[in-house]
Amino acid sequence: MPAGKFNVSISSDTVISLGLTRGEQWADVVDPEVGTTIFLTSLKVRGAEKLTAPAQVATILSTPTVKRGDDRIIYMGATPRFLINGTGFRSKVTTLTFDPPLERDVDYIMQVRSSECLQLTLKSGKNWRTDKEPGPLKLKRLNTGGGDLRIDAKYGGVTVAEVQANLGAHGVTVETTAEEKLYQSQGELTVLGTGFNTSRLAGAPGLPNPNTLRWSNGIRGKGTNYTVVSASADGTQLQLKLAAGSKWRINPTNLPGPLVLLAVDAGAGFVPVGPTEAKKGRVVATVFEDPVIQAAPSTILFTTHSHELWLVGSGFTRNSYTMSISFERKFTLGTDFTLSVINRTHAVVSLIDGKTWGVAGPLKVTSINTGAGPFQMSPITVATVTDDAEDHESGLIVTKTAGQSLYQSANIHKLVIEGKGFNNDPAIEFSPPLTKGVDYTIMSSTDTKITLKRLKNKKWRESPGALLVISLDTGAEHGAVSFAFGNGIPVATILPDPTVLESERIIYASHTPRLIVQGTGFALDGTELTLSPTPRSAYEVESIESTEMVLSLNAGKKWANPKGEESVIVTVSKVDTGAGEVVLSDVVIAKVLVDSDGASCDDSCEWALDGVCDDGTNSGRYWWDDDYGGFYGADDDYYSEGYYYDDDDDFLAPVCDEGTDCTDCGGPKVMTEEDLSRCDNSCQWSNDGYCDDTRTSGLCELGTDCHDCGPIDKGNYSTWDDDGWWDDDDNYWDDDYDMEGFELTDDAPVISNIVSLPSGRESATRQVDLDGDQGAGGIFMLLLEGIVYLIGALICGVGSWLGVHYYKGQSLPISLPTARQDGDYEMGGRGARGPANVPITPDVVRS
Hints:
Blueprint: E1 6-10, E2 16-20, E3 36-40, E4 44-45, E5 48-49, E6 55-60, E7 65-66, E8 73-75, E9 81-87, E10 95-99, E11 108-114, E12 117-122, E13 135-143, E14 149-150, E15 158-164, E16 173-174, E17 181-183, E18 188-194, E19 212-215, E20 226-231, E21 237-242, E22 257-265, E23 270-272, E24 282-288, E25 292-293, E26 300-302, E27 308-314, E28 324-327, E29 337-341, E30 346-351, E31 361-369, E32 375-386, E33 397-398, E34 405-407, E35 415-420, E36 427-431, E37 440-445, E38 449-454, E39 465-473, E40 481-482, E41 489-495, E42 499-500, E43 506-508, E44 514-520, E45 528-532, E46 539-544, E47 548-553, E48 568-576, E49 581-593, H1 662-665, H2 673-676, H3 706-709, E50 736-737, E51 743-744, H4 775-807
Parallel strand pairs: 8-15, 17-24, 26-32, 34-41, 43-49
Antiparallel strand pairs: 1-2, 3-6, 4-5, 7-9, 9-12, 10-13, 11-12, 13-14, 13-15, 16-18, 18-21, 19-22, 20-21, 22-23, 22-24, 25-27, 27-30, 28-31, 29-30, 31-32, 33-35, 35-38, 36-39, 37-38, 39-40, 39-41, 42-44, 44-47, 45-48, 46-47, 48-49, 50-51
């Protein structure tokens, strides 16, 4: 920085204050997010250089500006968000001060969309003016990292929006009706609520219905995807009709799923019907995928010898939704067959013992119900039924015993083959192949029953499924006898070996309503666990996936009874997926903490149990919609002005109180001594000079930005701000006066030190040790103090000696230079705010 851009004042023996000259700037800032660093390269006192290396002294930021928004009209509580334009905004450190006061993350949520744009989102139940009176919303102060900057102080701040009272049409509400179920491309939908526009009812010539709806998945009305057919006379219902060729939700991988209505425009602009800060909206229906079943006429089923039929298609559902199918012939679910849904595309129809597939001919499906009612379809042939093969002339028979279930490798039961005509050492051909003496041995064999034992470290099948006997040879003259025309007779169902994954999931004795158990091989039709110390009467099995079970705590019960601060572990000792109990080595699945008033955990949140964490205690929050599947596009700003969901699919915020969405979030964690002592720099934004854990921005977990925040229990993460209101008048560095003429100043430097840093390191700027232990820093300060006293004594001695010579009239031993008035000097004075009258030399750095 050349001479004349700043002046120097000595505030104390440890602080030098630099004042910027009017009209100048510290440095050019290229990147407003990072700023520009300035270094002190030379510091000379009486010609002696004091610096051994350049020192970083400041980061210069762009002076932020705010564009006036006097012409921007927003409504008290009906406008969900608006933008503030300007320059110099920074993503992590920008803070605002409003008049009337608005508190960030309490009244609104702020996103820095760019260095020139801020987006403010109103939180649920809040208003843009806390006094609820119409008027201007003014931005008084702005801080982008360099301290609070007063904006347009003479007029009380910059008006960023004019707040008007909500209009009558802003009172629209919508009810949650998730129990309304419909298929993707079928049916009409009724939306319930209040305040819908009834001024122009549908049916009037040339007048469309005036109500416009905004959906989370981007479907559009006015005939594009649907039409609002009518509104009830009392404004409590809207009737919607799907357009031909369109769908309520188009991405099948997310179905069944909610149809979420975000906002309604009843004539006065869009009004959010749910929390805008989390894009929750209201669920007005549950949409199911249009089910499809593939035809398979080449699949052969024998009247009684065939055990199961695999259905392939799409849109199949299970767990909380019970799927059923209807056949053209008399073949009834629960009486003649059972139905197991494996996943969205596969299901298994199993013949009940003693029943038949019916007479020979095509087996056709006429309708399917996946949860939204019967879905009619043209009869689809899924198999061809044929008569059983006739018994062999030898009288050798193998009976279908598909009701027998075995695990792949668990030695709980033996394999039993029943029939007629066996001998004591038959040769059996299996599908998949098994080898006698390698995979199994024959324990016993009679005329009607063969008992087999699996050998150690072997499996009945490498993959779960049916085990079939293809042929059997008793050594008679007729040789090996094939069954079911060589297709085989099912003699057992082989189930996967069940496992349970260990987990130290933290739950509360009764505050946690659900417990998730993960593992493999869980049977969809029913799996039982033996827990300790939790009795079976304390919970119900809510849902089962092949790798996950959800247990629901019964009213008045507890998972365990922990005492004090000690936790109780819950273990699984046995698991039964249908082929007997498998004994486990007490697998830990949860740690139970005592119920605490300070760590509540329930599902009282309005949006609990929707699969998304809404109370902010889980970092894995997201909101899925059809945009992720590449459908309907990601253009969230096709309605107006960017005031509603302007490309913000990636933005979420908690909308419920901590601990009120227990099932989806897992509940707030009780901070242990170990948690409180955590201090590392695993945060993505650690070591950037700004505290980023939950004590400030919340970008990272507590204790993971140790360098910038300090330890959890001792951290002081305030920043150095030497002038809290530095732009408090027209001239930054002029003093101000009160109404009575007394001088006021706020330019005195104020330093906030980090009083505690990791690994016991203390602030290098601390000057006083209250405990009396000076340490290295204290010793260094004492040494400097001694040097100052020594130099002072020398100066006083030399001054006294010179004074005596002058008093006696003796000549001085040195000559002092006089000021020269030529080109080697610059003239100036304090009144002219210019540089001092000092010589210009190339090796002197001055201010």
